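Thought: the user wants the 3D structure for the chain below. I'll pass the sequence to the structure tool as-is, report back what it returns, then summarize two notable features.
Action: structure_tool
Action Input:
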Amino acid sequence: MTRVFLYMMQSAFIEIRASRSLNASKKFADIFHNLPMMLVRSTSDEDDQLIYEKLLKSAQRYNMEDYVKELRELAEKGR
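Observation:
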């Protein structure tokens, strides 16, 4: 699952870099900024599931839950 999260984070960084809107960049940053430390602390599949749920919860605040789900699907296809 770590590769999936890394793909998702990479995509978020690309979106931030390409964004013309500071507001959009802030949304992506808010959703993904804790991911690196969560990955460092993850020791099980259960931890990974909790991480994903936290990402979805953060994304929900910005109505970006579908975006995060789609990113995961893309990342899993690329495995």
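Final Answer: Structure generated. The chain has one domain: 2-77. The longest helix spans residues 2-18.
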